Amino acid sequence: MVQVGSVIRFPVPVDMEPHVRAIFAPFRDASPERPFVVGQLGQSLDGRIATVSGESRDISGAAALDHLHRIRAHVDAVVVGAGTVIADDPQLTVRRVAGRNPARVVIDPSGRIDRKGKWLACDGARRILVTATDAATPDGVELVKLEARGGVIPPAAIIEALHARGLRRILVEGGARTVAAFIESGRLDRLHVLVTPVIIGSGRTGLDLSPIQRLDLALRPRSDVHVLGGGDVLFDCDFSECRPRSG
């Protein structure tokens, strides 16, 4: 990446299509003076991210997966919760597109995960464990200890801690509860919802937000829609003017 004045701009491949350039303009142009946080959610037409048995790996189509990896290539850190690590053992790397691997951050307030997993691979990317415990960490893993409230580490504290460590562009990739927590805290700048044309019919829903009583309390982010290959659709939602939900 290249710093121009107060703005850090990421190199853009010359063969990147114009609509893709437009999607990632907010990433490239974000000020380094404050964190830029984007959430990502891949789901079926009927809003599911996994079957009732927890199977989720093949929901997103090839174009949606390419887009996810492209997001990773545009950020400094990718964040997931302990549940995602336990269920999916994700690599959290850039493999499908050109780019560098971001730092891999796992939120584990109570020390649920063991000291194994693909996120711990020694490939040159930073590995960071955010926890409220005095957990031992494998060699090379950075420990960030923060206070938990009701078993949850506040998203604002996580973002501030990562930004203080030089991680300015942050992708919150999963799972559903983790993304929802960042939405409800009002700390997302963008949300990329990738919808794949498959109907599951039952299973885990994409977002687990607290209920509201009135529709005027619903979040209505300004959104752009992009049709990707294979029928995958991206909803690029701008949360910069959305207030946190309440009531």
What does this structure look like?
This protein is an alpha/beta fold and 247 residues long. The protein has a single domain (36-198, 220-238), classed as Dihydrofolate Reductase, subunit A, CATH 3.40.430. The protein is 20% helix and 26% strand. It contains 5 helices and 13 strands. It has helices at 18-29, 62-73, 82-88, 155-164, 176-184; strands spanning 2-4, 7-9, 36-44, 48-50, 77-81, 103-107, 127-131, 141-145, 169-174, 190-196, 204-205, 222-227, 233-238. Strands 8-7-6-5-9-3-10-13-12 form a 9-stranded mixed β-sheet, with helices on both faces. The longest helix has 12 residues, at 18-29. The protein starts with a strand and ends in a 9-residue tail after the last strand. Residues 1-15 have low confidence and may be disordered.
What's this entry about, in short?
The protein contains 5 helices and 13 strands. The chain has helices at 18-29, 62-73, 82-88, 155-164, 176-184, and strands at residues 2-4, 7-9, 36-44, 48-50, 77-81, 103-107, 127-131, 141-145, 169-174, 190-196, 204-205, 222-227, 233-238.
